[in-house]
Design a protein that fits this description.
Length: 374
């Protein structure tokens, strides 16, 4: 029996009307979206388990509970579009252009093995283990290199699509940003620049209510950050970040607007950070965030929300929805049996590739630091 308000929300029916774009998706599109949600979640919990098991070191920045933003925003992109993910979006590096086939080597996204090699700090990572986590990029796959300077990728993204337009291209760029990064001066400069030049820049705000230990009411004085868009003279959309279809609809609206030459927009996706800022912050976060707030913020798990919609749309039976129950569970409560086997298999292959990739030779440490041709 539901006891708390959070429990009641968990059991509540989803009332969601399909939007202009999601209403055109097929049953297999719905199934694919759900599978991708499982994969993004599995990436998160498996890395936590690998670290606990002692096979992995380094800080983890969880996207648990925020997977619908990554999956829903990537789903409608063309292979030639660009993305600029940051620390909270690690699965995006290998999930870009997934519709071309998860294992397709020509896909315009990194391989899962490359991304795992990056997480494990091995020689097969793009920077040959010189840096960790999201500090990667690939111009060949149209992924802008992530930087730790919050909002610092937006001007780079604006420049990339400006150049593409001058070359006659129609590429759009999705930039991913936490809501905290919007307080940076460069955020305003870059969005204003994109607005003035009508550049196809879709600025996604992952509003997870916290920037490290700072709550949103100390970050900006409005309920919907998307209203800031008015000041730049561009559209500002708000999406339910727990609902992959709503994210897809709002991002596709912004992408269509951008592609047709009308310029940039902001899509604010409302969500909640499930854990600490990184796993080094988990214990502290449990103190600075009231438990009720955390329970409330995690009550609508994106996997559960999608299942409820699929049942309502007749794309899934209640029995099928009970097949793999990863939703509502933390890393310590979940096992491989809670995920579809193809999801476990796919990521396990990537992890084995990384674990079998050697560490770089120590001599490499001094290479490519200075010019060596004079
Ligand atoms: C310019 C800048 N200031 C501070 C930091 C340190 N820092 C890294 S992540 C972070 C919080 C980011 O919060 P938010 O943008 O909301 O993203 P979230 O981690 O919540 O996804 C801070 C303060 C930084 N990397 N860059
Ligand atoms: Mg945040």
């Amino acid at each position: 029996m539901a006891t708390t308000e959070a429990d009641q929300r968990k059991t509540k029916q989803e009332s969601f009307e399909l939007g202009a774009f999601s209403s055109k998706l097929s049953k297999s599109d719905f199934q694919e979206l759900l599978l991708q949600l499982y994969l993004a979640r599995y990436f998160d919990v498996r890395l936590i388990k690998e670290k606990k098991r002692g096979r992995l070191t380094g800080t983890l920045y969880s996207s648990h509970n925020q997977e619908a933003i990554i999956v829903g925003s990537l789903f409608g992109l063309k292979p030639t579009d660009w993305i600029s993910p940051i620390h909270r979006d690690m699965p995006a590096f290998f999930m870009k252009d997934f519709r071309a086939g998860w294992r397709n080597p020509d896909r315009m996204g990194m391989s899962v093995g490359t991304v795992c090699a990056q997480v494990w700090g091995r020689v097969d990572s793009p920077g040959r283990a010189r840096d960790n986590w999201s500090h990667i990029g690939s111009s060949a796959k149209r992924i802008i290199h992530s930087t730790s300077m919050l909002a610092g990728t937006i001007p780079a993204a604006a420049g990339v699509v400006y150049a593409d337009r001058l070359d006659g291209g129609d590429a759009v760029v999705l930039t991913y940003n936490g809501e905290g990064s919007t307080a940076q001066g460069v955020f305003h400069e870059a969005v204003n620049f994109a607005a003035v030049h009508k550049l196809p820049v879709v600025t996604i705000i992952e509003n997870n209510q916290w920037a490290y230990g700072t709550p949103t009411y100390l970050e900006f004085s409005m309920d919907d950050f998307a209203r800031r868009a008015d000041g730049y003279g561009i559209p500002g959309l708000v999406a339910d970040g727990q609902n992959v279809l709503d994210v897809y609809d709002k991002v596709m609206e912004a992408v269509a607007w951008a592609r047709s030459g009308k310029g940039p927009s902001i899509v604010e996706c409302k969500t909640f950070r499930a854990y600490g800022h990184g796993d080094h912050d988990d214990d502290r976060a449990a103190k600075y965030r009231p438990k009720e707030e955390v329970d409330e913020g995690r009550a609508r798990d994106p996997i559960a929300v999608m299942k409820r919609i699929m049942v309502a749309e007749g794309h899934m039976t209640q029995k099928e929805a009970a097949n793999w129950v990863a939703e509502g569970k933390g890393a310590s409560e979940v096992s491989n049996d809670d995920f579809p086997p193809e999801v476990v298999q796919y990521l396990s292959e990537g992890i084995e590739f990384a674990v079998n990739s050697p560490l770089p030779e120590a001599e490499e440490g001094g290479m490519w630091v200075y010019r060596e041709d004079n």
